[in-house]
């Protein structure tokens, strides 16, 4: 029901329904359902720009999936946490968490996950004027063929236009110009 309200852009009712789902899952001691409800609540909080609650929901989802040994879902909750930190302006934490995802070889079988983690790093790097991290993201996309999230193609142009061209190498400038 919460997802239906979200689809209709009734975010207040969606949050109420997701919260009721969380209560039911806790009562039933169903950590998998709890994690799914927290992930949905994370999305709603993102749409209403409540980044503090978005962080709490992502952490709760991680914990729930950890308790039921659903690492396949936990890693996406971890990506959501990195995104929430980026949305909240805590760019260093977002970069650290996204790098943890990228540095775990188990995750490399999921190109959407890895591409999204690189994207989170690049978006955070843009906000702290870290041209080298943005360049690394573009190079990773170019050479590894990662699948991109729905907004990634739009983000690439914004990211690349923010790069200080004077601090990157000539070969990196060539790679970046392929995107422009």
Describe this structure in words.
The protein has 180 residues and is mainly α. 77% of the residues lie in helices and 0% in strands. The chain contains 10 helices and no strands. It has helices at residues 2-7, 11-28, 31-47, 51-67, 71-88, 91-103, 111-127, 131-144, 152-161, 170-177. Helix 2 packs antiparallel against helix 3, helix 5 (71-88) packs antiparallel against helix 6 (91-103) and helix 5 (71-88) runs parallel beside helix 7 (111-127). It is elongated, with a radius of gyration of 18 Å. The relative contact order is 0.08. The mean pLDDT is 84.
The gyration radius over C-alpha positions equals 18 Å
* SS-derived structural category: mainly alpha
Biggest sheet: strands, sense, closure? none
Residue fraction in strands: under 5%
Shape estimate: elongated
Taking the alpha carbons of the first and last residues, their distance comes to 42 Å
Strand segment tally: 0
What is the H-and-E element order? HHHHHHHHHH
Number of helices: 10
Which residue ranges are poorly predicted, with pLDDT under 50 across at least 5 consecutive positions?
A: none
Instruction: Summarize the amount of helix as a percent range.
Output: over 70%
Overall residue-averaged pLDDT value: 84
Quaternary structure annotation: single chain
Topology overview:
Layout: H1 2-7, H2 11-28, H3 31-47, H4 51-67, H5 71-88, H6 91-103, H7 111-127, H8 131-144, H9 152-161, H10 170-177
Helix pairs in contact: 2-3, 3-4, 3-5, 4-5, 5-6, 5-7, 6-7, 7-8
